[in-house]
Amino acid sequence: xxxxxxxxxxxxxxxxxxxxxxxxxxxxxxxxxxxxxxxxxxxxxxxxxxxxxxxxxxxxxxxxxxxxxxxxxxxxxxxxxxxxxxxxxxxxxxxxxxxxxxxxxxx
Length: 107
Fold this sequence. Notes:
Blueprint lengths: L6 H29 L2 H23 L5 H41 L1
């Protein structure tokens, strides 16, 4: 149960920033992979740390049932893994398109 009436505001803010940091992490990670600029890597790490901190706040409060805490934990792991996996998919698609283009040019 809530001990402080402002706890709900704290949880709402953590939820908002959790989503904001997750999007910032995905975007800055993708920009880093395209440009290889270390500034974007550091920015991605900063967003990741912020997202993990917000997830910690959301999971350690007394508002959510265990089901929602497990769901949030799974979502956090997915937010961390999806940019890696999607980058590999994009690279594979791009390589396949280049191969098709080369085949058309040689015919």
